[in-house]
Design brief:
With 524 residues, the chain is an alpha+beta fold. It has 3 domains: 181 residues, Alpha-Beta Barrel (TIM Barrel), CATH 3.20.20; 127 residues, Jelly Rolls (Sandwich), CATH 2.60.120; 104 residues, Jelly Rolls, CATH 2.60.120.10. Helix content is 22%, strand content 33%. The protein is built from 12 helices and 31 strands. The strands form 4 sheets. Strands 9, 23, 24, 25, 26, 27, 28, 29, 30 and 31 form a 10-stranded antiparallel sheet that branches. Strand 10 and strand 11 form a beta hairpin. The longest helix has 15 residues.
């Protein structure tokens, strides 16, 4: 916590001076460094929307260390764990969204203060110099910590008089877009009558001796907000300011264009997603006892996915492709060889094989079929038989594959990360993990109630449900996806996926790019 910076911020506000800041949504801490270097009074790191993880948040906080720039973190909800963790890693305060009730605000303040006045636990983390300055930290933390609620609903505005009675809050922020949505004008920054509602709440806050904040949409709007009495003013969002600058430059050279709601280029005909339950797709007999089933309608470009079923004892001889191949064992037993290197696979183990490497596959069971999920970065699959002899050697269980060749991901010990609410993921392959590969993909586990936010990719994608059942919404169209169902998504389509059942759900996703751009889509 930077107490001197917080004191300076408060002194400016007490003198009715504006304090200018930036709303950070992108991961690069260089953005915060630039803001600090330019003398911004404050930064808000947005951890409610978007894709920032805890490491990203920490790096933004570090970028402002020993500066006069206050760093606040916008959390996703009023939650003691989120507040505590944000403050433990060194934030100067928290921004709390969707504030409507007095009890919510009292909880937020309590979570940010130590006992006996609050409920914040003491941790031996960055804020306490890793436990070396408990006394000094506790003495100053309760006095200086900032708790900034966002009023972003009609109900919150109507309750402003009651919210003003809560001690420990000196700044209220406004979210016009969500406010407009709750007033019946979704998608508008300030719908009819909303500006007046916000102004009324703002006047009540100012009359109580407290300050108001808002994000400006332009330099002209910044002047208007200052004249209206807002004093904590965001110059914009980092992404928005970048786009504003880019569009100005492109307009200057005659290349300006409107951004569409998706990544799809303007003028492109609309292509819809396809849903293919197992048994409904195109079946190709690769050889006796080996069948590959792919979706009957494939709207994707440069991507084919499907299920390969090996009858007991069936062996696919050595072959290679001019492109990469991903093989994930779903059930049964199997051995996959790559130029003599033999890998015994267990369910959900993935072997990613760059183009040109000779490989073979064998169902080692004499009684049970082996089923793979397969992915290749082409819509026109082909293979070439290889007659070359390879000296065979069984690879150890912890082998990951030689550098520059195939990559084996063992499901049991693979690194996992959070990718949404109650959702964990494993990356199987991408341009960093397998430098020569033309696609990316991995495995995701959704616990009961797990979900990923609405999102879109700048490339075509495939999602195969490999365990349980899922609900997927693609631009308002609802799909119930049973086990072994494949959803193919054209680039730019906005979708969300969740598990509404009482059992876990797992999926394998593949993108037709080694480094896809993922955009989280929010209403604000």
């Amino acid at each position: 916590m930077k107490s001197p910076a917080i004191r300076k911020l408060r002194q400016k506000l007490a003198a009715d001076e504006p304090v200018y800041g930036l709303w950070v949504t992108l991961e690069s801490a260089s953005i915060t460094e630039m803001g600090v270097a330019l003398g911004l009074d404050w930064i808000v790191v947005d951890a409610e929307h978007g894709h920032l993880d805890w490491r990203d948040i920490l790096e933004h906080i570090r970028a402002a260390v020993r500066s006069d720039t206050v760093v606040l973190v916008r959390i996703a909800e009023v939650n003691v764990g989120l507040v505590k963790r944000v403050l433990d890693i060194g934030a100067d305060g928290v921004v709390v969204p969707w504030m409507e009730e007095v009890e919510q605000l009292r909880d937020a303040v309590a979570f940010a203060h130590y006992p006996p006045d609050g409920l914040r636990g003491i941790g031996a983390e960055r804020a306490t110099c890793w436990g070396q300055c408990f006394v000094e930290h506790v003495e100053e933390a309760d006095e200086h910590v900032l708790v900034v609620p966002i009023i972003e609903s009609v109900k919150g505005g109507q309750n402003i008089a009651r919210l003003l009675d809560v001690d420990g809050v000196e700044i209220f922020f406004f979210g016009p877009a969500d406010y407009s949505s709750t007033a019946g004008y979704p998608g508008q920054w300030e719908g009819p009558g909303v500006a007046e509602m916000i102004a009324e709440a703002k006047d009540a806050i100012r009359a109580a001796g407290k300050n108001c904040g808002v994000v400006a949409t332009s330099n002209e709007n910044l002047d208007q907000r200052l004249e209206q009495g807002f004093r904590m003013l965001a110059l914009g969002l980092d992404g928005g300011l970048l786009l504003r600058s880019l569009r100005g430059a492109l307009e200057h050279v005659g290349r300006d264009r409107q951004i569409s709601p998706s990544f799809s280029p303007q003028g492109a005909g609309q292509v819809f997603e396809s849903v293919s339950p197992i048994g409904s797709g195109n079946k190709t007999e690769i050889m006796p006892g080996l069948v590959f089933e792919s979706p009957s309608r494939n709207p994707a470009q440069q991507l084919t996915t499907g299920f390969s079923t090996f009858a007991p004892g069936v062996q696919l001889p050595y072959h290679h492709h001019p492109y990469a191949e991903s093989l994930t064992l779903l059930s049964g037993e199997a051995i996959v060889e790559v130029e003599g290197r033999m890998y015994a696979l267990e369910p959900y183990d993935n072997l990613s094989i760059p183009g040109g490497l000779a490989h073979a596959a064998f169902n080692s069971s004499v009684s049970q079929p082996a089923v793979f999920h397969a992915a290749i970065p082409t819509t026109d699959p082909s293979r070439t038989q290889v007659e070359q002899f390879f000296s065979r050697r069984r690879m150890p269980a912890d082998a990951k594959g030689p550098e520059g060749a195939e990559r084996l991901t063992r499901h049991r010990g693979a690194a996992r990360y959070e990718s949404g609410s109650l959702t964990t993921c494993i990356d199987f392959f991408n341009g960093e993990l397998v430098p020569s590969i033309e696609m990316s993909g991995g495995w995701a586990l959704f616990a009961c109630g797990g979900q990923q936010p609405a999102q879109a990719y700048d490339c075509d994608a495939s999602i195969a449900i490999v365990e349980g059942a899922a609900t997927c919404i693609v631009e308002g169209r609802h799909h119930a996806l049973a086990e072994r169902t494949t959803l193919l998504l054209p680039r730019g389509q906005v979708y969300s996926i969740r598990n509404e059942t009482d059992e876990p759900m797992a999926a394998i996703w593949v993108c037709a790019s080694p480094a896809p751009e993922r955009r989280i889509v929010t209403a604000s």
